[in-house]
Amino acid sequence: MEKFKTVLDLHIKPPSAVGYGLVTLLTASGERIFSTAVFQCPCSPTWNLPYGLVFLLVPALALFLLGYVLSARTWRLLTGCCAHRARAKCSSGLRGTLVFAQISVAAALAPLTWVAVALLGGSFYECAASGSKVLAQYLCSDRYPGCADQLPRVPCSKDQKSDLQDLLKELKAQSQVLGWILIATVIIFVLIFTSISRCLSPVSFLQLKFWKIYLEKEQEIFKSQAKEHATELAKENIKCFFESSSPKECNTPSIKDWQQISTLYTFNPKNPYYSTLHKYVNRKEKSNSIRSSEGDVVIPVLGFVDSSGITSNSEL
């Protein structure tokens, strides 16, 4: 159970090379287990295509949705936005769309890994492709009579006949080529996206490192102070209940205060705060609101700010 919590922490904490690498490794290992211990192609003209596609795509879809669930930014974006007074928050337009796109890109890592590893292995594709009438016409166009009828049985065939083995090798080759194309496409996209986002960074490389350290410490201290404050408030309320006394004054943030520090972070070069909480504390005396003002923008390279939520494993 502790190992599972460690894996969840890698999703919840700000993205890192180690976190992404471990998620990729676990996904690839899971696919190998499925393909060897669970997957059994029915070798049926009716079931090959849907069965193969289900194993290839449905786990990928599940991993994609899990990526949304485990992202702190998802819940920072959605929590409370359907309440009557917060509907304007839901209609934040371009800002919300950009943040959602960033969440989607991060959530796509595990499903793309699943599909790529599955294609390199070939089992799922061989089963699905052998049940496709379109591919059957292509593969059997210049082969022996009855090839299209035998194609669905190729993934299960132990026969060493050259014709069947040639079909199996061609299906595996197609699968592996598609897998390498997918891997190359993802790597190129990630490289371009990372390069552009870093190029547009409003701060230097070392300041970004300092920024991430600050957020980690802010999160640790916030959790500690929140736990201490909640414990004190709970003790006071229970004490007053059993003693039938009036509670002493215990200041807690208002609903409006909580809402403001829970909003999505936007960067303003005039006031470069390190978090929404940092912005709230420094602008509280100047204004009752820290909503986006002129000059505030969402910058992809600063997406880690919202990822540093207070979500913990026990809350999932």
Keywords:
316 residues; mainly alpha; 15 helices; disordered N terminus; disordered C terminus
Order of helices and strands: HHHHHHHHHHHHHHH
Main β-sheet description? none
Summing up helix and strand content along with how strands pair, one would put the structural category as mainly alpha
| Backbone shape | elongated
Number of DSSP helical runs: 15
Span between termini: 14 Å
Written account of the structure:
The chain is mostly helical and 316 residues long. It is 66% helix and 0% strand. The protein has helices at residues 2-12, 17-38, 48-69, 72-78, 87-90, 94-107, 109-121, 123-130, 133-139, 147-150, 162-199, 205-243, 255-261, 276-283, 304-307.
What does this entry show, briefly?
Pfam families: Ca_hom_mod. This protein has 316 residues and is an all-alpha fold. The chain has helices spanning 2-12, 17-38, 48-69, 72-78, 87-90, 94-107, 109-121, 123-130, 133-139, 147-150, 162-199, 205-243, 255-261, 276-283, 304-307.
Helix-strand blueprint:
Elements: H1 2-12, H2 17-38, H3 48-69, H4 72-78, H5 87-90, H6 94-107, H7 109-121, H8 123-130, H9 133-139, H10 147-150, H11 162-199, H12 205-243, H13 255-261, H14 276-283, H15 304-307
Helix pairs in contact: 2-7, 3-6, 3-7, 3-8, 7-11, 8-11
